[in-house]
Amino acid sequence: MSEERTVTVLVAVHAPDEEAAAVTVLGAQPQVTVARRCAELAELLAAAEAGAGTAAVVSGDLPGLDREAVARLRGAGLRVVAIEDPATPAERLAGLGCDVVVAGGDAENLVAAVRGDAPDAAEPAAPAPDLGGRSGTIIAVWGPAGSPGRTTTAIELAAALAGIGAAAPRRSGLLRRHRPAPRPRADTVLLADADTYASSVTSRLGLLDDAPGLAAAARAAGQGVLDVVTLARHSPVVLPGVRVLTGITRASRWPELPATSLDMVFQRCRELASWTVVDCGPVLEADEVLMYDTRAPQRNGATLSALQAAEIVVVVGGADPVGLQRLVRGLEDLRDAAVPVPAARLVVVNRVRDAAVGRRAESQVRDALARYAGVDNVHLVPDDPAGLDTALLAGRVLAECASGSPARAAFVDLAGRVRELVPTGV
Ligand SMILES: Nc1ncnc2c1ncn2[C@@H]1O[C@H](COP(=O)(O)OP(=O)(O)OP(=O)(O)O)[C@@H](O)[C@H]1O
Ligand SMILES: [Mg+2]
After folding, report:
1. pLDDT digits (tens, 9 = 90+) for 307-364
2. Which residue owns the Cα nearest ligand 1 atom 19?
3. Which ranges constitute the DSSP H helices of 104-240?
4. How far is ligand 1, taken at its centre, from the CA of residue 148, in Å?
5. What pTM did the predictor assign?
6. What fold is seen in the domain 137-421?
7. pLDDT tens per residue across span 16-33
8. Fold exhibited by the domain 7-115
9. Probe ligand 1: pick from 141, 142, 151, max atoms within 8 Å of CB?
10. How far, in Å, is the centroid of ligand 2 from the Cα of 201?
11. What does the pLDDT read at residue 345?
12. CATH 3.40.50.2300 in the chain, residues?
């Protein structure tokens, strides 16, 4: 079948002799046309996006070749065939998202790859020792603008999933003497700050505001070199069982978190941790100019990438008239997001208090969400300024400094609901 299809190839191979060899071999094949020899990546991208080819042959050492570039080529409908070289081994090229990787000088496989007859390159997967081969779960914590408590929810949920401060179950004296009490459930958790407008996990946990771990991981992913070891290096353990990928230090650095790279980062996160909790920015851009699938820079690409990757989206709203209204609209926005959001949704209303919604605040909030958003099982978190301010001041999670906090109890319950939603979760 492939014999009858004409393949139009764009060639961008760095070394002149290698380029000449590729062009000669491909040009001699029936139904294969070498449409363009591109001197550099920019020329290749322009030709691809002008619809000049159906396949691209690139050398691994082509300057500027990264995940973003490969995604653009594939987005333009090209099959991307990469030629391996000593500096860019096959694994890295597969990590960039290339469809097929062939060895340098392997004319037979190059032709097969261009024709679509060679098996696709599998994106390299590293072993996941602490998950026993299973794949971790991604939880995106999102909510509309107005500081409803996304970061608080993300941090406290991460702490609760890691079992920080969880008391061992009480046992009778007899049992305790003969058998040690089982450890409370504690998983490895990765907390990622993907808020491109106002990241704050770093200061909330009292960390140094230096190199953003998430941007470093995204950079490695963009270069095709993000493995689990590299991800672990960029995500230090800051609490027992909790690693952190810190966010960008200034909002203007948002281009350092491109969606094409974060897609790979989240894939790797699944291999490193049982749960990855992502603190997202508030905006789900619907402006066509900034749509996810164009090549315009994506201010909200990090949030959209997390939402697309997630198994669970925790949607956080504030328990006051403005916050509830935004939450109702936010749930609609999530349904109409620029990317498919296949995740289960857990709606959290934070800072529940009579003073902002009237008497019997809890039932008022439940009624409002049932009526206006069709949400029946909303999760309520009480207003707890004493607990949260103590945590804010100390740069700690509630379990460390305000263990009796009512908000903390609500976040521990939230972690229980998350576990129920992903029963096979690790
Ligand atoms: N349940 C609560 N009770 C009292 N204060 C709270 C509660 N939840 C959050 N806060 C406080 O509200 C403020 C905003 O919370 P947070 O930073 O989590 O919101 P956000 O949605 O991430 O905001 P941003 O838009 O800055 O990202 C913080 O000072 C936090 O301590
Ligand atoms: Mg925040």
Report:
1. 999 999 999 999 999 999 999 999 999 999 888 888 899 999 999 999 999 999 999 9
2. 149
3. 107-115, 150-161, 173-178, 201-204, 213-222, 228-234
4. 6
5. 0.86
6. Rossmann fold (3.40.50)
7. 999 999 999 999 999 999
8. Rossmann fold (3.40.50)
9. 151
10. 7
11. 96
12. 7-115
